[in-house]
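Retro notes (design track)

What went well: tokenization of the new backbones is finally stable.
What didn't: we kept losing track of which sequence belonged to which structure.
Fix going forward: every design gets posted as structure first, then sequence, in one message. First example under the new rule, 186 residues:
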């Protein structure tokens, strides 16, 4: 196997586990929909994280095409981004129902915001990866998407009492993640 194939397999393994955890959490919420008090904040951020997991997985082939050699630093950055997406997906939705007191808005305040914080760290890692491994200029206008996603995530993670602001930030992040262009490296 080539160096590229080893890295792709390792990163894909972690990303696959992250997708599985997130989808399992979605199923838990669906199965216990009668006992959960639904709120848009956690499912919207879960959708943002899911889209990023799939995009990152898909982009692995393109991320490394322009690199003649994958450095240990590049491997660590790529793996850490996959691990951070795993953590974000694992924290954003509950993985089990605790009974009649389940409330997705309260869960977000207790655990989900840590998943959103991890999601913001993913975007910081993407920026660092783009600049240090791929050599994209820091001031590249397309980096604005990465910055918007990181800032929206950090704001949503730190807003404690205003869940509607965190929900609006989630919609903004989803739009930025799907509609706005970003650097070729990610």
């Amino acid at each position: 196997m080539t160096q590229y194939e080893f890295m792709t397999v390792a990163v894909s393994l972690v990303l696959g586990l992250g997708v599985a955890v997130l989808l399992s959490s979605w199923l838990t919420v669906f199965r216990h929909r009668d006992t959960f008090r639904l709120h848009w904040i956690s499912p919207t951020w879960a959708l943002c994280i899911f889209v990023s997991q799939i995009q990152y997985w898909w982009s692995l082939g393109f991320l490394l095409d322009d690199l003649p050699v994958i450095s240990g630093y590049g491997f660590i950055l790529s793996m850490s981004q996959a691990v951070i997406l795993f953590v974000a997906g694992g924290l954003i939705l509950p993985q089990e129902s605790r009974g009649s007191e389940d409330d997705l808005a309260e869960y977000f305040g207790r655990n989900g915001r840590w998943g959103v914080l991890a999601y913001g760290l993913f975007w910081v890692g993407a920026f660092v990866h783009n600049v240090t491994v791929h050599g994209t200029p820091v001031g590249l206008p397309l980096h604005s998407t990465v910055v918007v996603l990181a800032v929206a995530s950090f704001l949503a993670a730190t807003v404690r009492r205003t869940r509607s602001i965190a929900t609006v930030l989630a919609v903004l992040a989803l739009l930025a993640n799907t509609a706005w262009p970003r650097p070729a490296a990610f």
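Added context from the reviewer: The chain has a mean pLDDT of 82.
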